[in-house]
Amino acid sequence: MEIRARLSALIGEIMPAGISGVVFPSSGSEANECAIAMARRFTGRTKIISAYRSYHGGTAASSAATGDFRRHFLPAAPDFVKMFQPNMLFSKMGGLTEPEKVENALTLLEEQIIFEGGENVASIIVESIPGAAGVLTYPDGYLQGVRALCDRYGIVMHCDEIMVGFGRTGRMWGFQHYDGVVPDIVTSAKGLSAGFVPVSVVACNDEMKEFFEEAPLGWGSTYQAHPVALAASYATIKHMLEHDIVGMCAKKAPQFASHMERLTQKHPCLKQFRSVGLFGAFDVVAPDGQQPQMFHDARGEAFVKYYKAFNDEGLYGLLRPPLLHVAPPLVITEEEMAEGFERHDRALNVLDKELGF
Length: 357
Prior knowledge:
Blueprint: H1 2-14, E1 19-23, H2 28-43, E2 47-51, H3 60-65, E3 80-83, H4 98-116, E4 121-127, H5 142-153, E5 156-160, E6 185-188, E7 201-205, H6 206-214, H7 227-242, H8 245-266, E8 270-276, E9 279-284, H9 301-312, E10 319-320, E11 323-326, H10 334-355
Parallel strand pairs: 2-3, 2-4, 4-5, 5-6
Antiparallel strand pairs: 1-7, 6-7, 8-9, 9-11, 10-11
Helix pairs in contact: 1-7, 4-5, 8-10, 9-10
């Protein structure tokens, strides 16, 4: 199929050197299912290590790899092991420096690998920038340390770029924010066709590609590599490259962060924010300084009223209390961005009031 060959070559051009094998499933969940199967087939091992406060999908293996409450409602698949993020939700290690936190997290991870049996671990899955968990970033040295542990124990490093791939963070790939980190497998979806059609991609390194040229992949899907989806994806990436959409996103990132900071300073319901490129999240706080609710709780009345105000302002976005995500189109203008934040400002007045500030 000509369009498949063209898109495969194009994906290879925008990936780091050494990543050239590609498969085109239909969703992020499917991509991670495929990647998990590939890692197990390639290594001959079964165990998968992934993080708490992660999201990798809603199908059998992808939900088992997921580290938030959404996996609680499905039967547990075997051979999935959870590690902690270096930035823990209830960390009591406030006195540690960033390098000490990194060393501690990597020491714990290596101990898990040893006691699970390094010879049993097929892959470690990390979101390059955990999105649903609140646009988290790893401290300097952590992801580099994960890469080193994978090399030491012969483990496949799998970066889940479903949310942040294709320019969302001001780089083509989220892992490019961490110097020297090149994964063995990359999965991505949402930005591949700009959300126009269901499509995703699994890209693997040259060694894995050569392996699967001889050994059956062992994975398939009815609509994988559908020509309509591939044509839309090819056109999307060509447009991104010709118009430097990723560079435009990076250029607008300081303005985006400035708006996030302004709203955080203005509204007492916002404790803090994080942003990378045009990807951001606010942490909501109650008057007592605590989270107003946990992720697994049903959306509280204050958030219901806030979201109605949010929608009434003509805005649409992801709300996962106690997080408020902000992810505008990458082609947004500076004027449109300013107007969007003004509208959000008015909606946040409702949340301030409903939480009791």
